Structures are given as C-alpha cells and as structure tokens.
Amino acid sequence: MAVINEKNRLTEKILFGMRYFGVLLAVIFLAKILIVRAYFGIDETMAVSYHYLSSESPYRIYINLDEQIMYVFKNDELYKTYPVSGGKSKSPSPTGEWIIIHKAKWGGNFGGAWLGLNVPWGKYGIHGTNKPWFVGRQNVSGGCIRMKNEDVRELYEYIPHGTKVIIVHESQPFRNLKDGDIGSDVYKVQTALKALGYYNGWCDGKYGENTKKAVLEFQKDNNLAQTGIVNISTWEKLMKQYEDSILE
To answer: How far apart, in whole angstroms, are the C-alpha atoms of residue 198 and residue 108?
Structure first.
C-alpha cells in the first residue's frame, strides 16, 4: 500500500511539473511575441512568424501592375506568367513584399480560390473574378489581385503557404496622406519615420494620431509647413532622408 501511495505521489509530482513547464513555455513565447511587437512593429512580427515558411517555398511571385502581369519563379527561374488586374486608383493594391498566409477554395466572386496576404491594414489576396474581361487589361479591383478563374485555381494547387509575393505599381499616382488614410504609402511613411527616430508605433499602414504627431515633428525639424499632412514636399524630403540613412 505504501508503495502504491509513493507511486501516486510521484505521478502527481511529474504531472505537476509537466503542467508548470507547459505554462512557463507559453509565458516565454507570449513575452517574446510582445517584445518583438513592441520593438519592431506588427509587420516585423509577421515577418518573424512566417520567415521559416518563405525560406522553405521554392516559389516566388512578382506582380507588376503597370504591365498587369504576374511572374512566378521556381528556384529563381521563370516558371509561369499570368495576366492579372489590381486595385484602381481609389483602392490601390498593397505594393511591397508580402507572404501568403491563408489559402481557401472560395467560390462566387472569388472564382474558386483565395490566397491571402499578410497585409496589416486590411484583407488582401489573390483570387478569381466574375469579370474576366478586365484581367490583363485594366486595374479595377478594390485592392486584391484578380486572375482568370482557371489561372488562380492552377496557382492555388502548387503555391504553398509562406510563398513570398512582391507587388509593384510604379504608375500609381501620388496622393496627399492625412489622418484616416490607409495603404502602402502610409506604411512607407511610417517605416521612414521609424527609421529616422520620429515614430515608435507599429508600422500598420494606418494613418492615425501617432503617425500625425510624427509627421508634425518631422515637418517642424525640416522647416516644412506643419500641417500633419504628407504632401509631395514632405514626402520627397522624408524619403530622401530615409534612403540616405539606409546607405550610411
């Protein structure tokens, strides 16, 4: 009987130790995520989370919205090309470098396939369309990348989670940025302000109060009109200083 009790006590001790160790690991992991977010921002947190996935994928997608063409590379060799359609001027596509983090076989206007991107300011992805006549000819979407249904279904089958996606749109017209705006241009402003020491928040592509304060401080230090609005003068001076800081 004494032996059985001793075994029970030992079992309880082991189980308690396992539970304690599990909780400790969870706390350490959560603390690590919070530290990364506080120091780097939400975009870098995503990059840390998905870096191992992107390094495993042999594919890379390059989307040129000036040409309305998607280039798919496999092991750094051109593998396939597809016609695409991106966002119109009032709802531009998220230019920059992203990762595919979600895949689903959605029907209806999505054409049977969805490949979602890790864009922090909204839900953007690659999908099909019920208006295929625009694909390869005109950028008319709400920001997502549209493909012909048969093309996106094919892409869905061989592109894995974690694949890197680069979107460029050089002819996208400049717009003044103000409180309430969202998009790649806001994201770029936040990134530049953060690199120059004016902005300490998350680079999330959302122009809020903290971004406005950082812009005002930058404008003050550079003898620009202190409006809190990023016009072309503020943009050009900010980007020049940011690019110079990268080269240093």
So the answer is: 45
169 noted as active-site residue: no
Tokens 């979600």 belong to which residue? 102
Structural domain span for residue 121: 55-168
Are 195 and 160 found together in one domain?
A: no
For tokens 């969805």, name the residue. Answer: 114
The domain boundary residue, chosen from 168, 197, 213:
168
Query: Which position among 51, 102, 127, 169 bears the catalytic label?
Result: 127
Q: What is the pLDDT along the chain (248 residues), one digit of tens a residue?
A: 554 555 556 556 554 554 544 444 444 444 444 433 443 333 434 444 454 455 689 999 999 999 999 999 999 999 999 999 999 988 999 999 999 999 999 988 899 999 999 999 999 999 999 999 999 999 999 999 999 999 999 999 999 999 999 999 999 999 999 999 999 999 999 999 999 999 999 999 999 999 999 999 999 999 999 999 999 999 999 999 999 999 87
CATH number of the domain at 221, please. Answer: 1.10.101.10
Residue from 102, 144, 161, 169 carrying the catalytic annotation: 144
pTM of the model: 0.76
**106 three-state secondary structure:** coil
User: 127 an active-site residue?
Assistant: yes
